[in-house]
Amino acid sequence: MTDRLPPPWTVHHNGDAYWVEAANGQKFAFVYYRETPLVGTERDARVSRDLARRIAANVAKLPELLTRK
Fold first, then answer.
1. Mean pLDDT (whole number) for 9-26
2. Domain count, the chain
3. What's the CA gap between 18 and 53, in Å, rounded?
4. Residue 26: how many CB atoms within 10 A of its CB?
5. Residue 60 DSSP label
6. How far apart are CA 51 and CA 64, in angstroms?
7. CB 2 within 8 A of CB 52
8. Rounded to whole angstroms, how far apart are CA atoms 34 and 50?
């Protein structure tokens, strides 16, 4: 995995999503969010902005966590 997606992984934000980017510029792990809650019977898979940021930040920590002993 680290051959294709070399660390460090960094989190980026643009518009309505956070994403994780590897050191080689490969973007992956897009997490979309919604600013305003849905009303009525509307359904959406997007999460809150804070939760999206936390998910992306935790994904970016994976290479470090996997190399710990």
1. 96
2. 1
3. 6
4. 12
5. H
6. 21
7. no
8. 10
Mean pLDDT of the chain: 89
Q: Is residue 47 part of a domain?
A: yes
For residue 38, what are the domain limits? Answer: 10-67
pTM over 0.90: no
pLDDT digit string (tens) for 25-54?
Answer: 999 999 999 887 777 777 777 889 999 999
User: How many angstroms separate the Cα of 45 from the Cα of each of 34, 39, 57?
Assistant: 9, 14, 19
For residue 5, is it within any domain? no
Query: Rounded to whole angstroms, how far apart are CA atoms 9 and 36?
Result: 29
Alpha-helical (H) ranges within 1-69 are 49-60, 62-67
Mean pLDDT of 6-21: 96
Q: Does residue 1 fall inside a structural domain?
A: no
Q: How far is CA 49 from the centre of its chain?
A: 11
